Amino acid sequence: MSTINNQKDVKEQYANAGNLNTRISIHQKYSTNKMGFGNWIFSNYKISQGLKVLELGCGTGDMWKGQEDLIKACDRLVLSDFSEGMLENAKANLGDCAGLEYRVIDIQNIPFDDESFDVVIANMMLYHVPDMNRGLAEVQRVLKKGGAFYCATFGEHGIMEFLCKALNAYGVEDNANKNFTLQNGKEILEPFFSEVQRLNYEDSLAVTNLDDLVEYIYSLSSMTSLSSVPKEEIREVLAKHVVNGILTVPKEYGMFCCRKASFF
Fold first, then answer.
1. What secondary structure letter does DSSP report for 2?
2. Phi, psi of 119, rounded to the nearest 5 degrees
3. In this structure, are residues 129 and 244 in contact, taking their beta carbons and an 8 Å threshold?
4. Contact assessment for residue 89 and residue 61, using Cβ atoms and an 8 Å cutoff
5. Distances 152 to 3, 4, 126, 240 between C-alpha atoms, Å
6. Sign of CA pseudo-dihedral 6, 200, 78, 93
7. pTM for the predicted model, two decimal places
8. How far are the Cα atoms of 14, 41, 151, 185, 212 from residue 7, in angstroms, in the given order?
């Protein structure tokens, strides 16, 4: 797929928050780790008073809800996204605050000077970047010496692997985007940062209402082969995996905490 088409597909998929909210809601309702992935991610940030922070691919900004103290602690916080629609949702969710900015930004061409930020964040989005090396080079460029880069992602043995096995009879294949996962992320990041640490978030889904999981499945762009299959039929297939009223779905998520060298 060409770079242009890939960016077009991503922009269409995230043009508004509908599908994304469907995917977020199933995690909120059924995750067995009650800390919450967003809270866990924030617990690993090292953001102290007066730092300048850039988030790339902020989406709806939902993870920043309830983080008002951290927002105010930042001397400058730029929340950005490739999608104007997502950024509008972020503005609606978080409103205005001193030092808080909203910008439409492509990670491959970050419009800031060298060494502008103490912290850069890019959660659950690097696998969409057409030119990964260019994007990471841009992150490294705008980071100050000794600055931190945080990037959460998924693993290759989680929800998609489970669903593809369960729905294999319908031609569903595990064609999930594996451009940047917990398995290959460290190798991709190491050329750009002096330190790269992988952290794992232990979790799973315990689904009690299969209709929610069906809606989640149909919100995924990788499940287009099911477009002509009645949802009730998919529900019946999933029901075969229910034990004691619960369908357990594995999850594999985590993040990388990186550091830019403090010297050249």
1. -
2. -140, 135
3. no
4. yes
5. 23, 25, 9, 32
6. positive
7. 0.85
8. 11, 26, 20, 21, 29
The alpha carbon of 131 is separated from its chain's Cα centroid by a whole number of angstroms, namely 17
Contact 122, 56 (CB under 8 A): yes
Question: Which amino acid type is present at position 108?
Answer: Q
Residue 131's contacts (CB-CB under 8 Å, 6 or more residues apart) are 3, 108
CA gap 196, 91 in Å, rounded? 32
Distance CA 216, CA 143 (A): 36
Residue-wise pLDDT tens for the chain (264 aa)? 333 344 445 544 444 456 677 788 898 899 999 999 999 999 999 999 999 999 999 999 999 999 999 999 999 999 999 999 999 999 999 999 999 999 999 999 999 999 999 999 999 999 999 999 999 999 999 999 999 999 999 999 999 999 999 999 998 888 888 999 999 999 999 999 999 999 999 999 999 999 999 999 988 877 888 989 999 999 999 999 999 999 999 999 999 999 999 975
For β-strands 52-56 and 76-81, DSSP reports them as parallel
Give the Cα separation of 139 and 127 in Å (integer): 15
